[in-house]
């Protein structure tokens, strides 16, 4: 059975960057509600489209994301879960549907998060993350992995970033405290270089 890893952290903490590498190293699925929702932005649900919530930086309703995660975990032999749970009710649902082998929290200061998110650039084809300062592609605006064009996410503007960080404080910080109270949370210093962060995560998973 593959490892079941939960990666928690604020928007911009480096969850996507680390998850991609973890999925490769441990041969597990990268399950990310953010990517799944972006691929289905205009899907009609009884609550409206995911887009209507995402462009404001608000959470998409639990029923929609819970179902995405349930279906993805059912099919996975080991996974790194990124972007979920984002509130206590999602955390409760997750406990009902799976066990976890590791719960990691990537800790990064708020001022650093704003700079990371507003400078983030994402490949429009393969989804690889870059940063205009911290993780520059070899050629400006072009993906190193596949040569496609890089774009800024609609919700990576300063105003929406501030809203997302406040949604994180209100809804997701209690999730982190919940796992801390259970004694299973391992905190990782997310302000190191990506390689250093990865080494700390791998050491935790293997210990
Ligand atoms: P980031 O990587 O910056 O944290 P994500 O790609 O994970 O952002 O999420 C982008 C948006 O998708 C969120 O602002 C929210 O609107 C929606 N979203 C993603 N995951 C969830 C979730 N678990 N619950 C509710 N909404 C979510
Ligand atoms: P999340 O999925 O948690 O929102 P990302 O992995 O997309 O975070 O990272 C957000 C931005 O910060 C991206 O532009 C990424 O290239 C950059 N980044 C990721 N990890 C680091 C790091 N350790 N140091 C500096 N910048 C980073
Ligand atoms: Zn690409």
From TrEMBL:
Consists of three domains, a large central CORE domain and two small peripheral domains, NMPbind and LID, which undergo movements during catalysis. The LID domain closes over the site of phosphoryl transfer upon ATP binding. Assembling and dissambling the active center during each catalytic cycle provides an effective means to prevent ATP hydrolysis. Some bacteria have evolved a zinc-coordinating structure that stabilizes the LID domain. It is an enzyme of class 2 (transferase). Zn(2+) binds at residues 123, 126, 143, 146. The keyword Transmembrane helix does not apply. Pathway: Purine metabolism; AMP biosynthesis via salvage pathway; AMP from ADP: step 1/1. The keyword Cell inner membrane does not apply. This is Adenylate kinase. The gene is adk. AMP binds at residues 33, 38, 58-60, 83-86, 90, 153, 164. Keywords: ATP-binding, Cytoplasm, Kinase, Metal-binding, Nucleotide biosynthesis, Nucleotide-binding, Transferase, Zinc. HAMAP family: Adenylate_kinase_Adk. Monomer. Catalyzes the reversible transfer of the terminal phosphate group between ATP and AMP. Plays an important role in cellular energy homeostasis and in adenine nucleotide metabolism.
């Amino acid at each position: 059975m593959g490892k079941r890893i939960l990666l928690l952290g604020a928007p911009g903490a480096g969850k996507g960057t680390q998850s991609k590498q973890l999925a490769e190293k441990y041969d597990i699925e990268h399950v990310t509600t953010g990517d799944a929702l972006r691929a289905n932005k205009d899907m009609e649900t009884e609550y409206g489209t995911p887009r209507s919530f995402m462009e404001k930086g608000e959470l998409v309703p639990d029923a929609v994301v819970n179902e995405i995660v349930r279906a993805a975990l059912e099919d996975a032999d080991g996974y790194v879960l990124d972007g979920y749970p984002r509130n206590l009710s999602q955390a409760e649902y997750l406990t009902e549907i799976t066990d976890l082998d590791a719960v990691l929290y990537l800790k990064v200061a708020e001022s650093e998060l704003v700079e990371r998110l507003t400078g983030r650039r994402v490949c429009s084809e393969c989804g690889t993350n870059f940063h205009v300062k911290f993780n520059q592609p070899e050629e400006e605006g072009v993906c190193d992995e596949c040569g496609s064009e890089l774009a800024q996410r609609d919700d990576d503007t300063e105003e929406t970033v501030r809203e997302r960080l406040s949604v994180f404080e209100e809804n997701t910080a209690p999730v982190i405290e919940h796992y801390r109270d259970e004694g299973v949370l391992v905190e990782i210093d997310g302000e190191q270089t990506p390689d250093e962060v990865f080494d700390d995560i791998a050491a935790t998973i293997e210990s």
